[in-house]
């Protein structure tokens, strides 16, 4: 009752409505976009981002913009998104930019980099440090537009059967770790490999591989790795994995300007939202893992190992920068931005977290 | 030329357009909302958030939703937003929830709390941990809707003329630090005070006050405090200051559902965007401060001082929880969420940042 009384005192608000007819062209048609995603149907978090995007785009446009999503079960080409969107078979895709490095090498740099920026740092680079412009420079000649597609947050370094106490322990280590981070480990004598996700659990359990990295607690929990590997290493190789919305530029041009804006805003919001969802799910799922398997130990690689990884990483990046002017432009931009922004991270969030943590010791 | 060639190979994309008439009611009127902000005109970052919100709402609605913004120069009541939106004099406001604690004590908890959550942690609480529901429970009986309005990121502990080496140094310390954090310091013998922003520089320069907190480099730079105080302390009292969009519930109800969704999405996106803008500006401005005044030293309060602040904070919160069941519900929700999410922060971003930092030592 108290609340009803208070509400009744609120005066009518000052919304004014004026009769005003808008051009009919923008309001009287339904535009349909077809999107293909890398993920299989019902894939958590990664699959939520494009669906959240489509849902808010449809409700904001009052049904004028309808986006349908085909999962990999349907289109059968999880890593064919780039080609299918470029050819116009699909108008849009949801995937990750670094999957296209074999086709267009500079696409590697718009997802995350080993020893690179954290999530808020990388969003700062995208939106205020020139990142979006460099991504456009990379994708525009291909007839594509690329946008952030949701962040996983800091990824864990992976599940290990044995402790890594020094560089010797990396020699011959069979680890599922795809992409550029795999190249870094290969330089240190490890044997990186890729294995289909459905076979990972058995491979780790039967010691076909010694270690693997997947994402973090948000997605690792349902894979069950905590049941069969005792060491969970903290991250170094994917500090801010940003997925990707890929849009065929001609499809974008066919939309009226208000729907283009609705699409851009929906993609941007769904991406930020996936970051927060991932953060939350990781927190929840880590509690579950630790409760079910209290013996799981969180470990950080020794300084000697991290330093060697960093050196190998720097050498590989220097090779890429020397071979391609746009690669150099992107990598220089990232390095300059990170140097500046990391100082701020260290005196703000990190100093704060260290302060609080010191009180418990 | 190369880029043109590639573009010409892209096939026409599969946008399909169907003739379909929508109900005229949603599309043929312009809705105008009046918003009042706490900030003066041209106030950076804080003032950008509502303007970015209004701009994307207008462009997504194709001009059907127009939001005009009055700064405090015009409405003359920077801390009157709550009353003006509640009475319907304005449809919306942009301010901060903790400014209303004198009117409705439980509004204190929806901005940031000393020793509380970081920005991604707090967004996790708002959107997945029950925070939005508790905020609604607090504001709904008042005829108001409250939404996140943009985050400053971790705020610095402030500018000090003298080092704080122990609890003795807090006794009698005259510091501009308003609100709840001021109450915490008062318990430790400091003399918190509030001074209008235009007089802060002179007060600190002439030692009328010994210290002050403002925001962080993003907004402190133009205040010039780095020119007159040698110590910049890291944060403890506002780890994730979230501004607020306040909406008169009747004004919201008068909008058609698609414009309500456009408004909600625009507010949510502008808030995340302000977090990233603040992060970026802090990084940039800290470089500027440090270049112009290289002798400025970043300091962290000694453990003894932090522990005493934390204890005083906990005691004050316990009093508030004991006095009001909704306060207890909110504070318990925050404490439980933070306990869970901080473990994840520590093994993800913090472990990563520590790893990287250790390589330079």
Automatic annotation (TrEMBL), chains A, B:
Keyword line: Signal
Coiled-coil zones: none
Leader sequence residues: 1-26
Gene3D superfamilies: Bacterial extracellular solute-binding protein, family 7 (3.40.190.170), Periplasmic binding protein-like II (3.40.190.10)
Top-rank taxon, per record: Bacteria
InterPro entries xref list: DctP_fam (IPR018389), SBP_TakP-like (IPR026289), TRAP_DctP_sf (IPR038404)
PANTHER family cross-referenced by the UniProt entry: EXTRACYTOPLASMIC SOLUTE RECEPTOR PROTEIN (PTHR33376:SF5), PTHR33376
Protein name stated in the entry: TRAP transporter substrate-binding protein
Organism: Marinomonas sargassi
Taxonomic placement: Bacteria, Pseudomonadati, Pseudomonadota, Gammaproteobacteria, Oceanospirillales
